[in-house]
Amino acid sequence: TVASGWVVSRLARRLAAAAGVRRRGIAGAIAGGLVVSTPWAVVVGSLAYNDMGAVVLGAGAMLAACRRGPGVWSRGGLVGFLVGVACCVKPTALFFVGVPAGALLLRFASWRDWGRVLAAGSVAGLIALSPWLIRNGLMTGNPVFPFAAGLLGTGHWTAAQAERFASAHTFHGTLFARARLLFFPDEAGASVVSRWRGLTNPQWLLAMPAGLIGAALLVGRVRRVRLIGVGLLLGLFGQIAAWMMLTHLQSRFLLPVLLTLGPLAGIGLARLKGLGFGIGVVVCLLQAGGAWAIFSEQNRGQPNAMLAPGAGAMMGDPYSGALGRVSPTAYLNHELPRGAEVVLVGGATPLYLRCRVRYATVWDRPAVLDLPGASGSPDAGVYILIDRAELARQAASGYLDPALTPGLIGEVVSRCEAVRSWPEIGVSLYRLRRGKVPG
Q1: DSSP structure string for 308-327
Q2: How confident is the model at residue 294 (pLDDT cuts 50, 70, 90)?
Q3: Residue 326, exposed/middle/buried by CB under 10 A (0-12, 13-18, 19+)?
Q4: Under a CB-based contact definition with an 8 Å cutoff, are residues 79 and 122 in contact?
Q5: Model pTM?
């Protein structure tokens, strides 16, 4: 996230120079500050999300597109390669990064060279994507798995699993409904994620208004300034169109618009001389203050507190019995016998577990269905960790595998002995009795 702010700052400086704006440092400072102070960027930057990886690569691609020095083929190839790597980080970068980078690439190339830069970019992007495509093809038979399952194959999934994935990643409303959710909450949404879509999520705060105000200060000016403003606006509109037409309309998916909003706000406000810098500082400070207020409310006054002690705290180090009473992960790491295997039901987050773990994502065959093949040692045994809160969330979202019925869960529990429970988070741990494999 920090790197994204720095590269977007460099991008804004270069675009300001191309537009003939003198206060390039101000433009860069506002653009980069807007990126790193937007609450959504802070959220995904401090968690295991891949969105900001796509943003920093996209900023690099746009920066490369603005260079006039290299030859046509090398510039197009560099932009395409960076877009391709961004797609390896997050496949939707093909649209969210490719559109604004492509717009700038064409803007800074002579129209006679458009065919060559696009050809170079396409070939380089395909080369960058090839490791992912080849691996997917070898493992599943479908190079873009899990997409295009109906055309290229479902891989190791059944048709029902592929359909469940596709349904969960598709918004079934009309075009008007899609556009409406960009600015208005979904009244039918049962959760924060499904209700506060688009720009209605408070974690966007002033990012979009700042970008649009900057755009208004650019598009009506002299030709050099107007061309930069229009190019960035085209990229922004393309990103929004991709969000409406090609995603299931989650607010977080819009994060790449910071690639266009940041430079628009920075260059536009830089044209107002000292006043613009003051406005930019106020906007960034309000963003940062809003982020602190949001996180303080969500984390009991300690925003992102788990970042301070690091991964050791997540794993339960140093361990105490009191920690095990509140943390299933700490308990599993320190209380289970050596050689034990844990089967996760509902949960699918084994990163911090030291023991052997069997799990499945919500789209795959549940691991609990294959208990006869459990590999825990005879002395250590097989343990089953059931996250009923997660199962309930999956059921409410329509994601839950039909095989994970209450009857099946009850059958599994009847073959086990209870070990420990964490009722405040809806998690229970059981030990499978020897010879008692659920049918």
Answers
A1: TT-HHHHHTSS--HHHHTT-
A2: confident
A3: exposed
A4: no
A5: 0.84
